[in-house]
Amino acid sequence: MKDISYENRLELSNTYHNIGMIHFYESNNDLALANFQQELDIELEILESTHPNLAVTYHHIARVYGKKQNSKKKLEYFHKELNIRLTTPKLNYSDLAANYHNLSLTYYELLGFVDAFKMNEEALKRACEHLSNDYKFLITLYCDAGAMHFTEKDYDKSLEIYEKAIEIGLNYLSVDDVNLKNIYEILDEIYYKKNDLIDLSSKNPMFSKSNISQTKQFTSLTYYTIGNIFNKMNNYERALAFYQNVHQIELQMLSTNRLYIEKYQDSIEQAKQNLHWSN
């Protein structure tokens, strides 16, 4: 009878879960929360306190609180989820890294920047060690970290981290992939903040508004960064193409920067040498 009772209660718990998920996706948040809570009450009675199913239930409750814009309760339940995931004998690193990522975003919502950075670092640590093929997740984590450093006005660190995101992306995506273009736009904004640059689209007659809408023109520094990443990847042909492109962009500026031009010329020559010796 005890086994039957256990099985029946487990089945009832699963029913509450399924109903909760339906309400969750239909944005009936109060009903979703009520059903997940019923599921949790049963699980707490019949399962061990560290059972992985509890982590899943805590996760869904946290997500409901997120939809209800209750970040403090969301944080509480993501931490409950984490406490169980860390005690599971066989760690699911994908779920653990995602848990840290959710905690990082929630702390960020609550302006707890120190803890947000800490949780992001924990997520990156697990992802780099165990999820290296999940490039989309890695890019997301690096972009989140870059955004947090940007908010803190640490532009140099923000650039460094966004460059890592681009480097990962270029190993899997085309250089003009829309996801990478979004990062290029962020680099532009950082360079504007750092160097008081002038927006090409509004100040340079070489780039009309109609052309901008078709082909986004970035500051020469952003293209130069892409060239440097290709150079780091030993793809000297692509690096050379970008260096030549940034050189032309800077020459077309209304007010050229001599130091930039010299730097770009040096990079072009170095890329040509690297390309020669690699053939």
Structural overview:
The chain has 279 residues and is an all-alpha fold. Among the domains are: 136-196, no CATH class; 197-279, no CATH class. The protein has helices spanning 2-25, 29-46, 52-67, 71-85, 93-109, 113-130, 135-151, 155-170, 178-195, 200-203, 209-214, 220-232, 236-251, 258-278. The radius of gyration is 25 Å and the shape is elongated. It starts with a helix and ends with a helix. Residues 197-216 have low confidence and may be disordered. TPR repeats lie at residues 139-172, 220-253. Pfam families: TPR_12, TPR_8. Keywords: Repeat, TPR repeat.
The helix-strand sequence is: HHHHHHHHHHHHHH
- Weakly predicted, low-confidence segments: 197-216
Count all strands and give the number.
0
Using only CA atoms, what is the Rg?
A: 25 Å
Distance between the termini: 77 Å
If you average the pLDDT, what whole number results? Answer: 88
Brief overview:
This protein has helices at residues 2-25, 29-46, 52-67, 71-85, 93-109, 113-130, 135-151, 155-170, 178-195, 200-203, 209-214, 220-232, 236-251, 258-278. The protein has 279 residues and is an all-alpha fold.
Name its key features.
mainly alpha; 0% strand; 279 residues
Topology:
Elements: H1 2-25, H2 29-46, H3 52-67, H4 71-85, H5 93-109, H6 113-130, H7 135-151, H8 155-170, H9 178-195, H10 200-203, H11 209-214, H12 220-232, H13 236-251, H14 258-278
Helix pairs in contact: 1-2, 2-3, 3-4, 4-5, 5-6, 6-7, 7-8, 8-9, 8-12, 12-13, 13-14
